[in-house]
Fold this sequence. Notes:
The protein folds into 2 domains: 216 residues, Spore Coat Polysaccharide Biosynthesis Protein SpsA, Chain A (Alpha-Beta Complex); 209 residues, 3 Solenoid (UDP N-Acetylglucosamine Acyltransferase, domain 1), CATH 2.160.10.10. The chain contains 7 helices and 43 strands. The strands form 8 sheets. Strands 14-17-20-23-26-29-32-35-38-41-43 form an 11-stranded parallel beta sheet, with no helix packed on it. Strands 16-19-22-25-28-31-34-37-40 form a 9-stranded parallel beta sheet, with no helix packed on it. It starts with 8 loop residues before the first strand and ends with a helix. 43% of the residues are buried. The N terminus is likely disordered. The structure holds uridine-diphosphate-N-acetylglucosamine and magnesium ion. Magnesium ion (MG) binds next to loops.
Amino acid sequence: MSTKGDTGLACVILAAGLGTRMKSPLPKVLHRIYDRPMLQYPLETAASLKPEKIIIVVGKNHNVIEDTLKPLNTVVFAVQEKPKGTAHALLTATTKLNGFKGTVLVMNGDTPLVTSVTLKKFLKLHRKHKNSVSFISFIAENPSSYGRVLKDRLGKPLRIIEEQDATEEEKTIKEVNSGIYAIEAHALPLLSNIKLNKRKKEYYLTDIIQIAAQKGIDTGVYCLGNEEEFMGVNTKHDFLKVHEVMRKRIISFWVKKGVNFIDASSVFIAPSVKIGSETLIYPNVYLHGDTKVGKNCTIYPNVRIIDSAIKDNAIIKDSTVIENSIINTRAEVGPFAHIRPGSRIGVSSKIGNFVEVKKSIVGEGTKAMHLSYIGDAKVGRKVNIGAGTITCNYDGVKKHETVIGNGVFVGSDSQLVAPVKLGKGSYIGAGSTITKNVPPGALAISRTLQRNIKHWRKKKR
Length: 461
Ligand code: UD1
Ligand code: MG
């Protein structure tokens, strides 16, 4: 609901364009910026204003868009069968307004960097000046892909002119239309006065400004924020630029929160990631999804972490991949380790060079330092997994579990053929293939005895 004293608010996000300039079969607004489709950004910004409803105008590929977006219960979709222009798109949205009386905030689905701070400022100005129609403008270094703003001597907007309709003189105007409008519901009938643009065969929402101005209806234009914020994504090149702005914004946010970077220019942190203070991040690190990194952690170069929790004081060494797992306090993982989904690495445990862990629990203080595979296993506390140990978890049909008790010592180059249990404190001789359970405290050894043939070399010659 709207805040007391304000008229109600409804948000319309235009997302039905074909996006032909992206040269991709994927709908433009579904191209991902980090882990989220581009449309999710304006959607979440709109939602943060707590509007009564959000209407997303989608095109013929609406099913894939509706399925991809995270559901928000205030969202309704309006289907614009043919992309006949931004005015036609808004007209399509009005069919879902159902007698709504307040302010309609129109946004573009391809403008993902707009912040709620700017939108709030804009709505405040629009309401303060009691305008019927307002829009946000900004100054563009290169205005060629935006509509130019024409104003009268008092700064009132007269018209927005698109690049292809502008004269050479109009093209030099650097103040451009952001594509964000506030239109009072009672002014929406103006849309029916918009005529088809003959050149582009589209109904331009931008024409509402000239129509309102000519009718003496109160209009306003507010030059807010910077160019970056209103960057519209029309080409893959724009998409790269938006990604870079988003990346820098996120890094700067975490620097302010006390996170340290050696060189942040190659660090990618998704918007939903959280990082504790005094954590140190080296170059070329990718943190994705719902990853949470605690305080005082160190993440060395070339690390990728997806949907995982790294607890305080943990160290993730070079070239490590961690997916959907938990790395507990003071644990050390890597270099060159792969922690696959469903794993939990215990407090102060060490998972070292070229070790792969999958869907396994590793207890406190346990060490697997070299060249091992731990899959579908429950490993107790203070276990030593020798170099080259393999849990043989797959029989070709099913996966089976390996249970390793507290304090077990697994000698190097052992194969533990699951399902199998190694009792507490048991000891596995190096090079063993273990197919039967081992009682607590026992030594299991399964290799042929060594024979030394004296003077063999000499005899062979
Ligand atoms: C539009 C504005 C331009 C502004 C720029 C800001 C018009 C005519 N021009 O240009 O003044 O500077 O945005 O980024 O409005 N869409 C539909 N249905 C359609 C056509 C478009 O839903 O039939 C949606 C698109 O998916 C997109 C948004 O409307 O999200 C803007 O359309 P786009 O074609 O990108 O317009 P621009 O050329 O960028
Ligand atoms: Mg655009």
